[in-house]
Amino acid sequence: MSEPRGPVDSSRVPRFAGPATFARLPRTDEVDHVDVAVVGVPFDSGVSYRPGARFGPAAVREGSRLLRPYHPALDVSPFAQVQVADAGDIACNPFDIGEAVETIQHAAESIDATLVTIGGDHTIALPLLRAAARKHGPVALLHFDAHLDTWDTYFGAEYTHGTPFRRAVEEGLLDTEAVSHVGTRGPLYGKSDLDEDRRLGFGIVTSADVMRRGVDEVVDALRQRIGGRPLYVSVDIDVLDPAHAPGTGTPEAGGLTSRELLEILRGLAGADLVGADVVEVAPAYDHAEITAVAAAHVAYDLISLLAMKEKQ
Ligand SMILES: N=C(N)NCCCC(=O)O
Ligand SMILES: [Zn+2]
Ligand SMILES: [Zn+2]
């Protein structure tokens, strides 16, 4: 197999020139095989508050122009280890959530690569988990979010950005011995939200736990729970404090710093990561690309973990 084709060389073509693919990588149709595909899902019809995450994929691609090829903290050059390419966007119906969920699942299943998906609102995690579970069986889940997203329905709707992980448990997509939320905080509808979440099998590391226990202890606990299981990581960018990610639809005070989030992700090196998403970037509320840059770095770290795994 030929050497991976990497990003456009920023010493020859200025990084602010040309149309944006993720990290200035080639498109999937420009390479002969793909190990890791970055795919956008510009869908936000499942939101309960501010809309705008449909523009997330484009914003994260723009925010990824400054990423460089070597990751010092993980000691890996992800784009040289494996072929990473940008698969463009999945076109789905903004007027029919059920149809969009089907479209996303089938598109995800049709891409012959491990996916790092850029949302889009959190509704899209359900079809992505369906695709992952079809390939790997029930997966362990690390869910970074201010919110539980295990609510039942909104206005009677089952597929929304507040409900994907309840649906995923109901559909048997998750290995419920190994499902955890990280970074939750903020007011709930009632105490029963937590009881129901626990009943579904979820463990919780709150945002305050990360601050009190520290990153290393949290990583140890999460890794123990995950063990050797195939792992899906879903990152709702609102897990970050609004100071670190203002550009999102349902912001909650008291969140993680981007440094804490990136360090927890780096602590997952060696896990059997099989797919990941970064969702809920809504650029209309962003400032100076703070959120888009944070999300681009999160995606870069996820890709680096996948590159390290594939190379083993
Ligand atoms: N941002 C996500 N995914 N979910 C937030 C749902 C919060 C709510 O509607 O009460
Ligand atoms: Zn959230
Ligand atoms: Zn969420």
Walk me through what this model shows.
The chain has 312 residues and is an alpha/beta fold. The protein has a single domain, classed as Ureohydrolase domain (Arginase, Chain A, 3-Layer(aba) Sandwich), CATH 3.40.800. It has helices at residues 56-63, 78-81, 97-110, 125-136, 164-170, 192-200, 207-213, 215-226, 258-266, 290-311, and strands spanning 36-41, 84-89, 114-119, 139-144, 174-184, 203-206, 230-236, 272-279. Strands 2-1-3-8-7-4-5-6 form an eight-stranded parallel beta sheet, with helices on both faces. Strand 7, helix 9 (258-266) and strand 8 (272-279) form a beta-alpha-beta unit. Helix 4 (125-136) runs parallel beside helix 5 (164-170). One zinc ion is lined by residues 122, 145, 147, 149, 161, 236, 280. Residues 122, 145, 147, 149, 161, 236, 280 line the site of one zinc ion.
The arrangement of helices and strands along the chain is: EHHEHEHEHEHEHHEHEH
CATH homologous superfamily descriptor: Ureohydrolase domain
Number of strands: 8
Distance, first to last CA: 17 Å
- Which secondary-structure class do the elements indicate? alpha/beta
- How large, in whole angstroms, is the Cα Rg? 18 Å
As a percent range, the share of helical residues equals: 25-40%
Order of strands, main sheet, comes to 2-1-3-8-7-4-5-6
Ligands bound, unique: 4-carbamimidamidobutanoic acid, zinc ion
Major β-sheet profile: 8 strands, parallel
At the first level of CATH, the class is Alpha Beta
DSSP strand (E) fraction?
15-25%
Total domain units? 1
Mean pLDDT: 98
CATH second-level architecture = 3-Layer(aba) Sandwich
Number of continuous helical runs: 10
Apparent shape? globular
Uncertain segments of ≥5 residues (pLDDT<50)?
Answer: none
